[in-house]
Write a structure and sequence with these properties.
Low-confidence stretches: none
Radius of gyration: 17 Å
Number of strands: 4
Order of helices and strands: EEEEHH
Strand content: 35-45%
Mean pLDDT: 95
Strand order of the largest sheet: 1-2
Shape: elongated
Helix content: 25-40%
CATH superfamily: Ribosomal protein L28/L24
Number of domains: 1
Largest sheet: 2 strands, antiparallel
CATH topology: Ribosomal Protein L24e, Chain: T
CATH architecture: Roll
CATH class: Mainly Beta
Length: 78
């Protein structure tokens, strides 16, 4: 499974690792992803989402059902 947040779409980006002597080598910056289970009360079932920490805060703010409706409108299977 890819390292992509299902809500925000965050994914790894590339950059440089810079040593003390200023030598630059390629590296990847990975998003802070968590696999989290939520109980969707409106449908009486558990769903598992792969989320960034920012997306977990978004769910706390907007509500789980609102976020799931937006994902389904965008065509994501949940």
């Amino acid at each position: 499974m890819a390292r992509v947040c299902q809500v925000t779409g965050k994914k790894p980006i590339t950059g440089n690792k810079v040593s003390h002597s200023n030598i630059k080598t390629k590296r990847r910056f990975l998003p802070n992803l968590q696999t989290k289970r939520f109980f969707l009360a409106e449908e009486d079932k558990w769903i598992t989402l792969k989320l960034s920490s920012e997306a977990i805060r978004t769910i706390n703010k907007k509500g789980l059902y609102t976020v799931v409706k937006e994902l389904r409108a965008a065509g994501t299977h949940i």
